[in-house]
Design goal:
Keywords: Signal, Transport. This is ABC transporter substrate-binding protein. The chain is an alpha+beta fold and 553 residues long. The chain has 14 helices and 26 strands. Strand 18 and strand 19 (386-387) form a beta hairpin. Helix 7 (314-323) packs antiparallel against helix 9 (361-370), helix 8 runs antiparallel to helix 10 and helix 13 packs antiparallel against helix 14. The protein is globular, with a radius of gyration of 24 Å. It starts with a helix and ends with a strand.
Length: 553
């Protein structure tokens, strides 16, 4: 039987809900401490040349297809993380506050259209050349003008070096989201950037690429000339493998930290503990808000079928939000290793308490009854000849999403709503993304996803909900001079009680969020994993943001 998060915490003697990921890592798992486990940990901590080393497994999708190139997707791609090989202008601490890295200071003009960064003068690339503001400008312009870049710097007009240690960024429009992106954009050398940079990266960060065997592993080693605090871990070996192979790598002692899932969390190998990292890795379902036939045109000429005759009814969307028992779902599907999700950024400074909704099946039933969705002899609902039914798409290769989809469908059936889960490839899902509900995975340590999933013209507005007041609040949030000033505007976009507008469950209810998934790992005893920031979506590089502070005891 799978070990649940609650029973795991009880076994640790720790109180659930009052400790962070770092404290949880210090609790004992089911593996149990023993001399052989400690010895294995000590042996594993030494590399072939005697330096300190850690071996970590990651999903195959964590391998960067284009290599370690920030101008394509490394660091600021789908799953954001610190680039390690390259330095960034700024970074975030464990509380997600901005801190300086290459920058020694920065400021924004009163109109929000000019950012000025002062750069430290002691950073050098691993080829010995000094890093200057010219490299910063080259990197930012390369991303802003690059068609294949995954980092979003579309708000940038131009970056320019005023002198060796000063870079100025001219904006097309005020947008403080720039800071969130710059915190994960690695600076590349203008003098040494070429077509093969991703395979042979030159950076100024904490680590250097020692070896890359495509489809198998990446080996990083500490940069001896790094300007900051010397890394405690000299070498990092990352093995790319599927979930079952990850378990085998821990069971055989090959890996020091191996990712796993709730379904395997009870199989903690001897000599290991269970590391539970808090996340904002949310699973939610987009609910098309327009009737069938409302096609969507993207990029001027790409036409997608859009709209849904069931989810376009706000009563259905609101009923789905209050009629689902998220806690029961998390126990059944995630063995308790997660917590209820109500938005794409629960617990973040920009989140809104108005997104929270308590399970109330009776209220859901009333909403459907009052909207005219009547039950038939089979208990399922219909209105004016239209069945209260829809397909729910999910990524076919994801067992967790599949289980969530079927649990959701079972709960909907009790409400009289017929939901048919459909596992499909992403290529197939994208053709249906505006017409059918889709079970997505999102989560970021920035409000960018909230903006894009909610804004009328956002790339993630799958619900196709468009509201001028919501858009105005989102635009105002990005236009503030400081990120702290943006929070009330983001919250108002989710729900503004004064105007009765927003995407919250009591309003437009454009999504039904289900669960935030805990990120679980088997951690070898004797390895001290530094305190983690909340992990964004994706099991991968976010774990090693602070790998330089890990150590062996």
């Amino acid at each position: 039987m799978a070990l649940s998060r609650r029973s795991f915490l009880k076994a640790c003697g720790c109180a659930a809900g009052v400790m962070g990921a770092g404290a949880l890592a210090g609790c004992g798992g089911t593996g149990g401490a023993n001399a052989s486990g400690a010895a294995a940990g000590a042996a594993a901590g030494a590399g072939p040349d005697g330096v300190s080393q850690v071996v970590i497994t990651m999903t195959p999708s964590s391998e960067p297809a284009a290599g370690f190139n920030p101008l394509v997707g490394w660091g600021a791609g789908e799953h954001v993380h610190e680039p390690l090989i390259q330095s960034t202008l700024i970074a975030t601490d464990n509380n997600l506050a901005f801190v300086n890295d290459l920058a020694t200071d920065y400021s924004c003009s009163e109109d929000g259209l000019t950012w000025t960064f002062s750069i430290r003068d002691d950073a050098r690339f691993t080829d010995g050349v000094a890093l200057t503001a010219e490299d910063v400008a080259f990197t930012i312009n390369g991303i802003a003008n690059g068609e294949g870049a995954e980092a979003d710097l579309s708000m940038v007009q131009e970056a320019r070096a005023l002198d060796a240690v000063t870079c100025e960024i001219a904006m097309k429009r005020p947008n403080n989201a720039l800071l969130y992106t710059l915190a994960v954009v690695g600076i590349v050398p203008a003098h040494a950037y070429g077509a093969d940079y991703g395979e042979h990266p030159i950076g100024s960060g904490r680590y250097m690429l020692e070896q890359w065997d495509r489809g198998q592993q990446v080996i990083l080693r500490a940069n001896p000339d790094y300007y900051g605090e010397k890394p405690l871990m000299d070498r990092v070996v990352v093995l790319f493998m599927e979930e079952d192979a990850s378990l085998a790598a821990a069971s055989s002692g090959v890996a020091d930290v191996a990712y796993t899932s709730a379904s395997l969390a009870g199989a903690v190998p001897a000599g290991y503990t269970l590391l539970n990292c808090a996340s904002v890795d949310s699973r939610g379902i987009s609910l098309p808000c327009n009737p069938a036939g409302t096609d969507v045109v993207v990029d001027g000429d790409m036409v997608y079928v859009g709209g849904n005759d069931v989810t376009c009814d706000i009563a259905v969307r609101q009923a789905l939000n209050c009629g689902v028992d998220r806690e029961a779902m998390i126990e059944r599907v995630l063995a308790g290793f997660g917590h209820a999700a109500y938005s794409v950024g629960d617990g973040m400074p920009w989140s809104s308490e108005a997104m929270r909704v308590e399970t109330d099946v009776a209220a859901a039933e009333r909403l459907l009854d009052e909207a005219g969705w009547a039950r038939g002899g089979d208990g399922m609902r219909s209105r004016a000849g239209v069945s209260c039914a829809f397909d729910l798409y999910y990524a076919a290769g994801d067992s967790t999403r599949q289980a969530l989809a079927y649990d959701f469908a079972d709960q909907c059936a009790a409400l009289g709503i017929a939901v048919t889960p459909k596992g499909a490839s992403w290529d197939d899902i994208y053709t249906r993304q505006y017409a059918d509900p889709v079970l997505w995975g999102w989560g970021s340590n920035s409000p960018v996803e909230l903006f894009e999933l909610t804004y009328s013209e956002g790339w993630g507005n799958y619900a196709q909900y468009m509201n001028a007041e919501v858009d105005a609040n989102l635009e105002a949030a990005q236009a503030t001079r400081t990120v702290e000033e943006s929070y009330p505007f983001y919250q108002a976009a989710q729900w503004d009680a004064a105007t009765g507008t927003g995407v919250a469950p009591e309003g437009a209810a454009t999504w039904v969020w289900l669960a935030n998934v805990d990120h679980l790992y088997f951690q070898r005893e004797g390895l001290a994993v530094a305190e983690q920031k909340p992990h964004p979506h994706g099991h991968g590089w976010s774990l090693v943001n602070n790998i330089d502070r890990w150590s062996w005891s």
